[in-house]
Amino acid sequence: MILKITIILTLLLHLQVVLTKEIEDELIFVQAIWRHGDRAPSKLPYPNDVHNEDKWDNGWGQLTKKGKYQMMELGSWFKKRYINSFVNATYKSKEVYIRSSDIDRTLMSAQSFIFGMYPNQKHSGHKLPTQVVPIHAPAPGDNDPLLRPDDFECPEYDKKVRNINEHLYDELMGNYSDIIPFLKNHTGFEGDLKIKDIGSICNVKIEMIHNFNQPSWIFSEWPLHYNKTTLDIVCDIKKQLRLSDFQNSELGKLRGGYLLDNWLENAKKIIHHPDEEHKKMILYSSHAETILALRSAFNVYPDDITPYATALIMELYKTDNSTYYIKLYLKSHNKPLEDLQIPGCEHKCNFDTLTKLYVDMEIDSRKELYRECGLEYCEKTGGVVFDYAD
User: Fold this and answer.
1) What is the value of pTM for the model shown?
2) How would you write the chain as a 3-class SS string?
3) 7 domain-assigned
4) What is the pLDDT of residues 11-51, one digit of tens each?
5) How far does the signal peptide extend, from start to end residue (predicted)?
C-alpha cells in the first residue's frame, strides 16, 4: 500500500514538473498568414455557364458575404487564443501589424478578420467603430513577391515547373481521354480543350456553395473512373495541377523562399534584440498560392488546395533557460487546430535547428530573388517590393 502511494506521488510530482515547465515557456511572438474568405469566381468557369457576373453582388473575384463571415470567425478564434493572454483587447499599433496583398478580397478579408479579433466595444453617442485597425498594403502596380509570389515574373520557376508538369499534363489528358470530348461538347471552349480549361470547370463548386443550379452533365457518373462524377474528375485534375506547382524544394524556394526568409528574420529580430521594442503579432492576408508556396518552402506539403479562411500560424516561445522554439499550426475554417510537423525537427522545433534546416531555402533580398529567378536586377526594376518593417 505504501509502495502504491509512493508511486502515485512520484507520478503526480513528475506531472507537476512537466506542467510547470510548459507554463514557464513564454509565448513571445506570433505570425500568421491566411487565405481570403469565400469569393466569387474570377471569370466564368466555362464559356457556356449561364451564371455570369451579374449574378454576383460585387462582381468577379470579390469577397462574398459568406467569405466575410468566415474571416470574422477566424478573427474570433484568434481573439480567444491570443487576446488578453498575449495581446491587449484594445488594438495597439506597437503590438499588432496587419499586411495584405493589394487585392480587394484580401483587403476585405483583413477587415472582416479585424471585426472578429477586435469586436466593437460599448461606445457613447458616436457611430464610429471603437476598434479601427490599419491594414498595410503595397501601392497599386508594385511588385509583391511576398504575398503574391505566383504573380511575380520568375523565368527560372516557369522553366522548372514546365519541365515537371509536361509529364503530368500528358498523363492526365491520357487518363481522361474518354471524358474530353464530353467536356468539349458541353462547355463551349474553342479549339483544343486545354488541361487548365478542364481545371477551370471545377469553379462551379463556388456557384454551388451559393445554391446556383447546375446542368445535369456536371453530375454525370463515369463507371471507368470509379463512378466519379464529372465534377469530381475536373476538381481532382485542378487539385493535381495546383499542387504540382509547388511539389518540390526548388519550386518552393523560388515561390516561397522570400516569405520564408521574412518569417525567420522577423523572429530573429526578437530573439537577438530582446531589449528593443518589437511587434508581438504580424498577420498577413493573402491567397491560396501564397500559403502553398510557404508550406512548400517549409517542406510541409499539403494534400489539398488551401481552403478559404485558413491560416498558417507560427508561434515563437522562449524557455526558462533562454532557448527558443517554434510551433507550426494550420487553422482551417470550422476545424480544430492542426499541428504541422516540420521534417527533421520536433514539434517544439528549436529555432537554431530550424534556421539550419532552411538556410538553403531562404531568399534574403530583392536582389537575390531576381538572381534566383534569372532576371537582371537594377534598383528601378519592377517597382518597390513592399515588406514589413519594424
Assistant:
1) 0.90
2) CHHHHHHHHHHHHHHHHHHHHHHHCEEEEEEEEEECCCECCCCCCCCCCCCCHHHCCCCCCCECHHHHHHHHHHHHHHHHHHECCCECCCCCCCCEEEEECCCHHHHHHHHHHHHHHCCCCCCCCCCCCCCCCCCECCCCCCCCCCCCHHHCCCHHHHHHHHHHHHHHHHHHHHHCCCCHHHHHHHHCCCCCCCHHHHHHHCCHHHHHHCCCCCCHHHHCEEHHHCCEEHHHHHHHHHHHHHHHCCCCHHHHHHHHHHHHHHHHHHHHHHHHCCCCCCCCEEEEEECHHHHHHHHHHCCCCCCCCCCCCCEEEEEEEECCCCCEEEEEEEECCCCCCEECCCCCCCCCEEHHHHHHHCCCCCCCCHHHHHHHHCCCCCCCCCCCCCCCCC
3) no
4) 555 555 555 444 579 999 999 999 999 999 999 999 999 99
5) 1-20
